[in-house]
Structures are given as structure tokens and as C-alpha cells.
Amino acid sequence: MNILNRLFSLEGKTALVTGGATGIGRMIATALVEAGAHVMIASRKGEDCVTVANEINASNPLGKAEGFSGNVGTEEGVDNLVAEVKSRTDKLNILVNNAGVTWGAPLDEFPYGAWAKIMDVNVTGLFHLTQQLLPLLDNAASDEDPARVINLGSIMGTVAMGDGAYSYSASKAAVHQLTRILGKELASRRITVNAFAPGPFQSKMTAFATGSDEKAAKVGEGVPLGRIGSPDDIAGAALFLCGKGGSYVTGAILPLCGGGHLLTGDPLFD
Question: Annotated catalytic, 166?
Fold first, then answer.
């Protein structure tokens, strides 16, 4: 076996990607399937998940995808999703907590209701789903090959940029801290827990700013590396953390943001 297959192949692995029908979730799901994994794609729009799974499978990847409905925004929704996953597999090598929502409004107008909804999906649902799927993660875990959890954080949870998305930014900071806590607590069970902190990528959530190539290029001008992220940037990071090459990493917040987390504003004494 060559080194690329040894370190990054996911043949024989089973994964769940929430919110996997669009944006970064779809990028991750596609990468895992192409690397040989059996990937379950779940989101509130089950028909979209089925469509995406069929599109991925049509490219004849090493693995396979299947899609169905799943909602992590309520306790009942999480419990139903867990039951659906357990009906399809008795072990889970990879859990990607990608499902997320956002809300934007000026500071003086930001509504009370924009907090509970965001926190329920981005934080509470993420935690409860991980908790309920621990038995399946335990079944897949070993000293040599831990089970993997990847949480979707954000550059907005790392640096002080609200951009009108106050509850979203706070929720992603919470995701980062939960990642560290769970990384510590689950290490003894041979489950690694890491997070991505993406900067701008083209997705449904960022379509208002990156929905066209012209808009994307404009946003990229504000990124230290001069561009927004690409699907390969997500794919490479996902295959590293999920493959053999990432088996010794846990509790890390990976800044997939082209250096955006290094921005501190204009020089103080410029």
C-alpha cells in the first residue's frame, strides 16, 4: 500500500455528515465518499440529501453515499436522526457535525428570537447528537484507529468580527470550546474531536457575499492569502483528520481561512 492510501484512504469506514446537502457539508461528504467511505448525508430537506447522494454516486467514487432527512434543531429531531442512523449501521467511524444556521441584523435591531434558534442547532443539537451517537463511535474506535468527530466552527468564533451575526459568532465560539472539552474527555475512549474554523467559502449561507465569481473575488481581497476557500481546501483537511494521518490529533481548531484568523485590524502606529 502506498503512503497516500495508507494515510488518507477511508475504505471500509462509515460516516454521518449533517447538513451535507449543500456548501461545506457537501464538500466534506464528497471527499469522504471519494476516499472510499460509506457516507450518510442528513439534513432537514431529505429529498435534497437523496439527490446529492445520487449525484455523488454517479461519479463512480470508491465509496458510496446515501441521503435521508434529519433535523438537529430539536430534541425530537436529534433522537429521530439517531434512530435512523442506528437502523443503518452499528458502528460509526466518522461523525461530521456540519449542520448550522445563522441570523444577521444590526446590533440595535438584533431580535431576542435570533438566539434560541441558532444555539439550538449550532450548539445544543451538535452536543446532543454526539452524545447519543457515542455507542456507535465506541464500536468503531481502537487504539490504532480512533473514531473521529469533526465539528464545524468558524473564523467568526475565533476573532472579534460580529458582522451582524452575533448569535452565530457566539455559537461558533461555543463549538470551539466544546471541541476542546470533548477532545479531552473522549480521548480515553479513543475518539478524537476536532473542529474546522472556516473563513469564506461559496455556500448557501454565504451566497449574499460569495454567490458570484465577482463577489467571491471581492471577498477574497480581504483574505491574507488573496482568495476564498475552495472544495479542495475542505477535502484535504477532512481526509487528514479522518484518515490514519490524523489519528494523533484531537482538540484542535483548524483555521481553514487563508490566514483570516491572523487579522487584527490596521496597524496601531501606522
Answer: no
pTM: predicted TM-score of the whole model, two decimal places? 0.95
Condensed to tens digits (0 to 9), the pLDDT of residues 138-164 reads 999 999 999 999 999 999 999 987 789
Question: Structural domains in the chain?
Answer: 3-256 (3.40.50.720)
The residue annotated as part of the active site, out of 112, 166, 168, 248, is 168
Q: In this structure, which amino acid lies at residue 270?
A: D
Question: Which secondary-structure segment (H or E) carries 152?
Answer: strand 147-152
Distance separating alpha carbons of residues 200 and 195, to the nearest angstrom: 16
Q: What angle do CA 99, 66, 14 make, to 5 degrees?
A: 80
3-class DSSP assignment, residue 253: strand
Q: For strands 64-69 and 94-97, give the pairing.
A: unpaired
225, 258 Cβ separation under 8 angstroms: yes
